[in-house]
Amino acid sequence: MAEPSGRRVVLAAAGGLVVIVLLVVARGPVALLAVATVAVLAGVVLGVPPLLRHDGIDWGWQPDLQHETLPEPGIANLRRLLAPSQDDTAAPARLQELVRAIAEDRAPGALPAGGALTAYLSAPPRRLGLDEVDAVITELETLSPKETS
Fold it and tell me: pTM to 2 decimals?
């Protein structure tokens, strides 16, 4: 014999089936279409939201990603240095060290006098604005790289 909760489910399903048959007999196939429409809408309303919940799986992963061009390794680090979080207080000093290393690599001991690059490297480390970054990069680009033999 079925347990009481199982019996209730079976009785509810049987009762619903009896109501549907009575509607079809009383109103014809249009009532059956209306009941089917309500059943489909109820299924969508009850079934779709659980499917839309986040399941913790990275669905953006694709099997052919090894063929894509990866960004340069230093780009992410440069982004963190140019626009650091509020917690990262050491970023301005690391950015200044990076700029100093690039300038020294491109023109050892020959920084242009009075430019934005010289002013930035001689001042204490601080966050740079977009215009200052543009001026420093422009001066870095104008430095002639050292010859390698």
Answer: 0.47
